[in-house]
Amino acid sequence: MHWNKRAKVKKQSLQPSNVVAITHAQSIRALCVLLVIQAVVSYRRIPRILGLFNEKTPLALKWVPHFTFVINWTLRLGLGRLKQVKSIDKPWLAIVDHSIDMGPKKVLVVWRVAIETLSQTEKAIQLKDCECIGKIAEKVNGESISVGLEAIFNQTGRPEAIIKDCDRTLQKGVILWSEKQKITLPVIEDIGHVMANALKAPFEKTTVFKRFTAWINQGAKCLRQTELVFLTPPKPRSKGRFQSIS
Asked: Do 189 and 165 meet the contact criterion of CB atoms below 8 Å apart?
């Protein structure tokens, strides 16, 4: 048993004397993945939670896996689900975006939403109305997005339109894919980014706006470490600043 200096958790080496039974290991694996998916627990916290169960409850786990194992198990589950995606007969829309980073990996997230579902619902769509048909990637640029979209749409069929934000990388990837397929597919920019860009153009470089943001920063510094800290304004965003203007 030795310490992982970066994670600050004990990493166990399975020696011949303490090999875990397969059925027990499978139960632990399932428990870890369920903690990630259903309880939304971070990967690094899962070994600590299981260790706490071992100390304070009669659970008596024979093996507490390292958090990197949990990452690999979760990724394998997601990859398995993506490989099972098939084409559908109903016309559908593709909502395209990128996930947050997970080490060197990102996911080109493509949500498939049937047009029939959009016409029947009178409120925002929910997870049950969508199906993820994304693709894991090691790098993100216009060419990789184009290749990813081609692989995804070859497996699932072609959407009626693509909905995305105004990210330049996504824009380039969609254009490259359209040129390669020699088709003109409707591309819809999401309303949030469109309105944010509309506000950004006239306001971002004005003297009044720069002075306003400077006042916010100065006011926040004066309120910190005081009894009025609860009045501290949110930290101004340097990227996507106009996304949450409300």
From this structure: yes
Q: Which helix (H) or strand (E) holds 2?
A: strand 2-4
Taking the C-alpha atoms of residue 208 and residue 174, their distance in angstroms, rounded to an integer, is 37
Alpha helices in 3-141 (DSSP H): 22-37, 45-56, 67-83, 115-120
Q: Do residues 67 and 44 lie in contact, with contact meaning Cβ atoms separated by under 8 Å? A: yes
Q: State the CB neighbour count (10 A cutoff) for residue 79.
A: 12
Count up the domains in the chain and report the number. Answer: 3
Instruction: Examine the pLDDT at 114 and tell me if it is beyond 60.
Output: yes
Q: What range defines the domain where residue 139 resides?
A: 85-189
List pLDDT tens digits, range 183-224.
Answer: 888 999 888 778 887 887 888 788 888 888 888 888 888 888
Global pTM?
0.67
Same domain, 111 and 57: no
